[in-house]
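HUMAN: Ready with one sample?

ASSISTANT:
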Amino acid sequence: MSSSGRTLLIGIITGSIITVLASSLIAQLKNENKEEHDEPTTDIVEGVDGLIGNTPLMKIKSLSEATGCTILGKAEFLNPGGSSKDRVALNMIKIAEEQNILVPHTGSTIFEGTVGSTGISIAMIARAKGYRAWIVMPDDQAKEKYQLLEKLGATVEKVRPASIIDKRQFVNLARDRALEFKEGDAKGYFADQFENEANFNAHYNNTGPEIYRQTGGKIDALVLGAGTGGTLSGISCYLKQHIKKLKVFLADPQGSGLYNKVKYNVMYSPTEQEGSRRRHQVDTVVEGIGINRLTKNFDKGRHLVNDAFRVTDDEAIKMSRYLVREDGLFVGSSSAVNCVAAVRAAKKLGPGHVIVTLLNDSGQRHLTKFWSDEYLKSQNIYAELKPEEGLFDFIK
């Protein structure tokens, strides 16, 4: 055979070998890829309960860049019920089940007094677990909260706003409804989010550890509002045990007495005490935080709060519009208060610090009040964010 023939033959053989090897390698990779996709995972959760918690921690870019600090918001609005109250509702119900106070599918009813978010969370979980929900609320909340509760199958009882000394105050009425409940073997359970330590424990055992893991413990300050106080106390108690230098700041809306309690150890003047004033007890368009009495849940962590920031309605409203404009972040009123206070904490601490707050819920359940220009004008609130207005134009 000539040399050219041998060269041709060697080329053909070599090409065939390469083709076979390549085909074999491709087939092997395909099989490995198939096996990888066929491999069972543990990503499937059991019902709506499994969707609660483990929410992401996001850097709020506009606030971080403006302050020189890293300001992080825990996206609690991504819980299935739309707020951090899912954690509390789930834990209160679980503990009641463990104590045989609640038994599923017996007609038992969960009663709660709430301004909305806890009620929505209870209604959702009650449906999933085989209970009924009876929610008592002040009649001045955003109407979409009532609508959502009704769509979730809850009985909604609206009452006029009143102080805690009034028997028809929404919390007192929910307690009475539970005590009066009689329907065969079914039980009435008053969840009592303000005093029930299952609230505190939900955040001490879950939210706090999540934040610690997500940040690797590298946090300088925690900034939170308080209504029941369970979120603030639970997270603070956990994080302070692991981060000794951590500063805790209370974010308090106008009309609430907690700011004065932290700053001056005086809850209110005699004329502002619950039961003495004729106006709404927390005179603000902010819903979900702010109160004029001390609860058991708040008291558990009160000694850990280093300072407090008062946030006006104007500041909260402008912050919410600013976050949409700069970050595409559509938050509710208490989240906006938290963000204003987080900026104040950044100014107090100086650049280079890591500050964590909670984004409690989205603006979707605040459309008819906090996010309604028409409603705000009816309350003589004119807090429009001008196009040229920057962060430090409305936060001094």
